[in-house]
């Protein structure tokens, strides 16, 4: 019985909730006639007005008829209750405001229309639709084929554009200019440029990026001249020759194809093309019109693709109204279907009853769907019906057989520029212009530890590092061709040996600079593998590539000198070093007394003096004690003599168990324990420093520095060299001509080659001169510990600096600013000794690479003050241990304690 009762309550509760939801959500707030009465009143028809333009009524009427036919063939007009759509199309006798208003009021509004489709052809007609919709409070949908839509927030006037308006094209052009880094342009105007109005909008907008704005330098007007080839060529030559620095880009406006073709051909003949000038078509072109343009290469053009006809937009506008009426009918069929605005001069009182136009306009603003023109929605803040319009950006390039062809390099849709072919999109950077948005060609030189290389993966990509081209050439056209093939995805075209992955400190710095300064780059390795020097009247290596224009920037371990500074610009140094001398070790046998090296001679003397003093006091305590092993003590079987004390102290010092007598006096035993603690400290320090003695078995060539007699007078066959065409060789040539003449036959092409000559058996060189940072790296990776830098470092004209270098132009300050605002890169800490130094330990950095004693030295620096130095005669390692505070205390504490205990013992046992 209870089960039946609770079941009844559950069903009752569920029914009440359903009834309540139906009352709140489905039933209207105000009573209205039954839908059948409404349908009979409107004749089962929803009426829609269409205001045809007076000048093109036939074309628009035909498009309207096609749209209605297509909607009928689809079998779904989206109207409820099987209602039919009746379009009331009327044409105004003229385009003046009075005729349009009379046509709307007398021929369209009186029919009880839910909305009105308008086709304004001029900007004045768009404004008239704006005022009429606001006054009548009837939704107007203006389908705009030409002109700029109004920027209003009128919910009764929705604007649908069939093409990208001029303001959108201006945004596209500015995006292209921004992407390419062109902040200044020149315009050439042909016939028909006034119709587009793009140039005027560009001048008004003048919206820039970064620290400056886009600037139109000049406008060359050809609209009033004859399109004769000779006249246009003379006109362009006269105006461009007056300007010493031509603009980076030229915008060509005009609808006359003959004039545009003549201008482009003249520019090609005059050499006003890439890389000096980049031409851009200022007005949109159709894809078919591109085939008539074949010059110049690098020309940029744009145009709308997959453009929909007018009837598609009309059909989507009809569907927008039908969907809004259907949604409004669900809530208030009386307001959605019965129009209470049928007389322009008798508007209903909005305070008593809302108009049907207000009601339907609210649903129009919240309707969206996918139509024939793409996704359709309403942008309420601008009162626009958004449709899909896609613009492609094309660039004129050469195909595989050398013929000019148009390549899609980008697209514009929804106010956003998408780049498709990154390598083909950006033009080359030009000297004197900002690097932002440009594509630079960067040259580097493989020099460890600043730049390393590894092989690419199976797909030709670099999982780590940056792709760099190692083609072994400095020919600009060859490099252009190779980089273009890779940008087009033809990596298989490149030989396997050409593709490398560059990584290292300088490459990381280059990546950070590109990110901060917004530029992209193509990286390649210098063809001849040289830094650069004057040879045959021309510069080679990195400097030669910069001066010839093959490269825009060089990033590697590059040094400043006066000759290079006159030709190229350097940034502020991000790493400072000097020149050094690298030698190879020689294996020698350690002398007999090598075991004494871990401790200083004064330390040895102190240990043995303390040993004998301790033995003396042990003997004295034992003989004065009544419990001692003496003839007068209680233990008379054995006698503890001074020799017994020495035997005990030596046994404790060397850690060996021998037959010895131990004192019976408690004071002597306490002194013996103190001696044992002291011996433990000495023994641990000795064994820890013994490893340094083993390193001392290697000796090195004695070279005090660049002024050593062995270098200036190599009479005994002392061989030394450096890297060819490097800053080190330039320094030797200027500062020591005779020495340079001698060492030329021993110079090597690269630093690793020079180091390899030191490590051969027998060695081909006795010393190698190069940047000290590079030599320190070679020492650190020497697994056999055979290399060492010796002598005092010497610099090239002050300090040698690792640099980023450019041609002599005015944007290095921006790179310097980016360098010194880059955390973690500007302040390198390549010296591995920085983590091992300690106030009590003085180390020679040149020797520490082959030592594995850092942990041991750090563990004992609180006990002993260690000093590490190199013997001037043999360059053998010598560790000096000076007694620290703990050792001094352990030595003097037993003597001080025994001195105080001796009088007390004498007084206590005095008879």
From TrEMBL:
Protein role: Receptor for glutamate that functions as a ligand-gated ion channel in the central nervous system and plays an important role in excitatory synaptic transmission. L-glutamate acts as an excitatory neurotransmitter at many synapses in the central nervous system.
Annotated family: Belongs to the glutamate-gated ion channel (TC 1.A.10.1) family.
InterPro entries in alphabetical order: ANF_lig-bd_rcpt, Glu/Gly-bd, Iono_Glu_rcpt_met, Ionotropic_Glu_rcpt, Iontro_rcpt_C, Peripla_BP_I
Primary localization: membrane
Molecular function via GO: ligand-gated monoatomic ion channel activity; signaling receptor activity
Gene3D superfamilies: 3.40.50.2300, Periplasmic binding protein-like II (3.40.190.10)
SMART domains for the chain: Lig_chan-Glu_bd (SM00918), PBPe (SM00079)
Record has Aminoacyl-tRNA synthetase as a keyword: no
Compartment annotation: Cell membrane; Postsynaptic cell membrane
Protein name: Glutamate receptor
Pfam families reported for this sequence: ANF_receptor, Lig_chan, Lig_chan-Glu_bd
Membrane topology according to the record: Multi-pass membrane protein
CC terms in the record's Gene Ontology section: postsynaptic membrane
Record key words, sorted: Calcium, Cell membrane, Disulfide bond, Glycoprotein, Ion channel, Ion transport, Ligand-gated ion channel, Magnesium, Membrane, Postsynaptic cell membrane, Receptor, Signal, Synapse, Transmembrane, Transmembrane helix, Transport
Transmembrane segments: 595-618, 639-658, 670-695
Site residues by UniProt (Crucial to convey clamshell closure to channel opening): 703
Annotated site, Interaction with the cone snail toxin Con-ikot-ikot, chain positions: 733
Domain Ionotropic glutamate receptor L-glutamate and glycine-binding, residue spans: 492-548
Domain Ionotropic glutamate receptor C-terminal: 492-813
């Amino acid at each position: 019985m209870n089960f039946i009762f609770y079941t009844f309550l559950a069903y009752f509760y569920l029914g009440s909730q359903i009834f309540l939801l139906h009352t709140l959500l489905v039933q209207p707030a105000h009573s209205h006639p039954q839908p059948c009465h409404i349908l009979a009143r409107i004749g089962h028809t929803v009426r829609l007005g269409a205001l045809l333009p007076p000048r093109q009524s036939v074309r628009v009427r035909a498009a309207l008829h096609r749209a209605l036919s297509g909607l009928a063939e689809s079998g779904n007009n989206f109207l409820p209750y099987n209602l039919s759509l009746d379009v009331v199309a009327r044409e105004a006798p003229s385009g003046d405001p009075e005729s349009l208003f009379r046509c709307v009021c007398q021929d369209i509004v009186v029919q009880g229309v839910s909305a009105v489709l308008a086709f304004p052809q001029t900007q004045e007609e768009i404004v008239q639709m704006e005022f009429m919709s606001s006054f009548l409070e009837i939704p107007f949908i203006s389908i705009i084929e030409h002109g700029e839509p109004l920027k209003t927030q009128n919910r009764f006037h929705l604007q649908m554009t069939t093409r990208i308006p001029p303001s959108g094209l201006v945004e596209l052009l500015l995006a292209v200019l921004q992407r390419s880094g062109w902040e200044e342009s020149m315009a050439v105007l042909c016939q028909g440029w006034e119709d587009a109005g793009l140039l005027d909008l560009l001048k008004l907008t003048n919206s820039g990026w970064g620290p400056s704005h886009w600037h139109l330098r000049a406008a060359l007007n050809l609209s009033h001249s004859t399109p004769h080839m000779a006249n246009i060529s003379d006109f362009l030559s006269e105006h461009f020759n007056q300007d010493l620095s031509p603009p980076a880009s030229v915008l060509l406006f005009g609808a006359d194809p003959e004039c545009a073709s003549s201008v482009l051909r003249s520019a090609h003949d005059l050499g006003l093309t890439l890389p000096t000038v980049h031409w851009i078509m200022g007005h949109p072109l159709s894809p078919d019109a591109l085939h008539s343009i074949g010059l110049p290469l690098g020309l940029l053009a744009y145009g709308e693709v997959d453009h929909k006809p007018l009837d598609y937009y009309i059909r989507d506008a009809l569907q927008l109204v039908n969907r809004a009426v259907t949604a409004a009918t669900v809530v208030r069929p009386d307001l959605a279907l019965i129009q209470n605005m049928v007389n322009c001069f008798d508007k209903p009182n909005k305070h008593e009853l809302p108009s049907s136009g207000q009601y339907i306009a609210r649903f129009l603003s919240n309707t969206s769907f996918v139509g024939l023109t793409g996704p359709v929605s309403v942008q309420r803040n601008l009162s626009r019906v958004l449709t899909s319009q896609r613009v492609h950006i094309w660039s004129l390039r050469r195909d595989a057989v050398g013929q000019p062809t148009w390549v899609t390099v980008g697209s514009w849709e929804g106010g956003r520029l998408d780049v498709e072919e990154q390598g083909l999109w950006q033009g080359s950077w030009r000297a004197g212009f900002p690097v932002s948005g440009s594509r630079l060609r960067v040259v580097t030189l493989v020099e460890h530890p600043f730049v390393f290389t590894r092989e690419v993966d199976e797909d030709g990509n670099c999982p780590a590092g940056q792709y760099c081209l190692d083609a072994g050439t400095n020919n600009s056209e060859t490099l252009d061709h190779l980089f273009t093939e890779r940008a087009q995805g033809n990596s298989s075209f490149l030989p396997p040996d050409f593709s490398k992955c560059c990584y290292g400190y300088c490459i990381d710095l280059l990546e950070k600079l590109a990110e901060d300064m917004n530029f992209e780059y193509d990286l390649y390795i210098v063809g001849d593998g040289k830094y650069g020097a004057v040879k045959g009247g021309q510069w080679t290596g990195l400097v030669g590539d910069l001066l010839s224009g093959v490269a825009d920037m060089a990033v590697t371990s590059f040094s400043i000198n006066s000759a290079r500074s006159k030709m190229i610009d350097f940034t502020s140094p991000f790493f400072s070093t000097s020149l050094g001398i690298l030698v190879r070790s020689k294996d020698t046998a350690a002398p007999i007394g090598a075991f004494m090296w871990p401790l200083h001679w004064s330390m040895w003397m102190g240990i043995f003096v303390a040993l004998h003093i301790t033995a003396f006091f042990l003997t004295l305590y034992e003989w004065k004690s009544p419990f001692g092993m003496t003839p007068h003590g209680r233990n008379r079987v054995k006698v503890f003599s001074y020799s017994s004390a020495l035997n005990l102290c030596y046994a404790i010092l060397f850690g060996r168990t021998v037959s010895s007598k131990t004192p019976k006096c408690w004071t002597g035993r306490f002194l013996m324990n103190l001696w044992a603690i002291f011996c433990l400290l000495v023994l641990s320090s000795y064994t820890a420093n013994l490893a340094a003695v083993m390193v001392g078995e290697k000796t090195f060539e004695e070279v005090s520095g660049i002024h050593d007699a062995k270098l200036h007078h190599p009479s005994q066959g002392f061989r030394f060299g450096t890297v060819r065409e490097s800053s080190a060789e330039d320094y030797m040539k200027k500062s020591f001509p005779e020495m340079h003449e001698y060492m030329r036959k021993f110079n090597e092409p690269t630093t690793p080659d020079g180091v390899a000559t030191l490590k051969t058996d027998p060695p081909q060189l006795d010393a190698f001169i190069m940047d000290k940072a590079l030599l320190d790296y070679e020492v650190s990776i020497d697994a056999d510990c055979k290399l060492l830098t010796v002598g005092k470092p010497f610099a090239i004209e002050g300090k040698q600096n690792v640099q980023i270098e450019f041609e002599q132009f005015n944007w290095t300050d921006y790179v310097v600013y980016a360098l010194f605002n880059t955390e973690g890169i500007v302040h390198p800490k390549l010296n591995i000794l920085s983590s091992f130094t300690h106030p009590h330990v003085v180390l020679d950095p040149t020797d520490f690479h082959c030592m594995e004693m850092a942990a041991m030295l750090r563990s004992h620096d609180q006990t002993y003050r260690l000093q590490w130095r190199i013997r001037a005669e043999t360059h053998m390692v010598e560790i000096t241990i000076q007694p620290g505070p703990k050792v001094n205390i352990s030595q003097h504490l037993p003597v001080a304690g025994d001195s105080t205990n001796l009088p007390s013992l004498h007084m206590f046992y005095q008879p």
